[in-house]
Amino acid sequence: MKQLDESLLAGLPPFSRLQRGEIREILDQATPKRVEAGTEVFHEGHDAERFYLLLDGYIRVVKVTPTGEQIIALHISPGQLFGIAPALSRDTYPATAISVVESIALSWPVRLWADFTARYQGFATESYKTLGERLGEMQSRITELATQAVEQRIATALLRLVNQSGRKTDQGIEIAFPITRLNISEMTGTTLHTVSRLLSAWERDGIVASRRKHIVITDPHRLMLLSTPES
Question: Among 14, 30, 65, 96, which residue has the least CB neighbours within 10 Å?
Fold first, then answer.
């Protein structure tokens, strides 16, 4: 990894509190990995052999319920660690990671996790902060499923994706990676029919615009109002 300059990673959370020499030490032990769109990086329940840092692309984190239903738990953006099973004191991956678009990641053997967190205080602090934020997001998702109406859940899910990956276009703010109506149903615990019905209605109302695997929020303010419970 000597061809990858450590300054390119200095602003990312795991490295933001480290000296350049420390970043170099970590990078010299990394293995680069290019993952084609739709390809699994690792599978739920398999032995956790490596942990990863996403450099480019997006990763979808998926869990399967005991009844066989697929749930999209998270989306991982560039600059974030993922597959950090040792941070959860696990020796298997708790979910499946799938590359949404062609992605590039760095990876390290899990045996290095304890060494990195012990030797590099900033790495440990920022990594566990990221983990805490991720667990907080999961808790928020559980609360939404338990308390919000379907329309609010779908609006909240779209706003979360916009905040995570949105990019401005002539039409509005586009979610930066492919997302289908089935994906949204798997994120929100609702049916594909309900998602399709609501998105079609919102498109007629000028709130969203959708085409195959792409969604643009054309009126973010109205979508935010839809995500808010009525008083």
Answer: 65
Each residue of 170-189: pLDDT tens digit?
889 999 999 999 999 999 98
The Cα–Cα gap between 231 and 218 comes to 25
Contacts of 79 (CB under 8 A, 6+ apart): 11, 12, 13, 53, 54, 55
The whole-angstrom separation of Cα 215 and Cα 218 is 9
Q: How far apart are CA 74 and CA 111, in angstroms?
A: 25
Q: Which two tokens stand for residue 180?
A: 């289908």
Residues 6+ apart with CB under 8 A from 226: 151, 152, 155, 202, 207
Helix (H, G, I), strand (E, B) or coil at 199: helix
- CA dist 27 and 4 (Å) reads 8
> Within a 13 Å sphere around the CA of 226, how many CA atoms are in the beta-carbon half?
23
**Residue whose pair of structure tokens reads 């979610």 in the numeric block:** 175
Strand pairing report for 167-168 and 173-174: antiparallel
Predicted TM-score (pTM) of the model is 0.86
Task: Dump pLDDT digits (tens) for 69-119.
Answer: 888 988 999 999 999 999 989 999 999 999 999 999 999 999 999 999 999
CB count in 10 Å sphere of residue 80:
20
166-76-39-35 Cα dihedral, nearest 10 degrees: 90
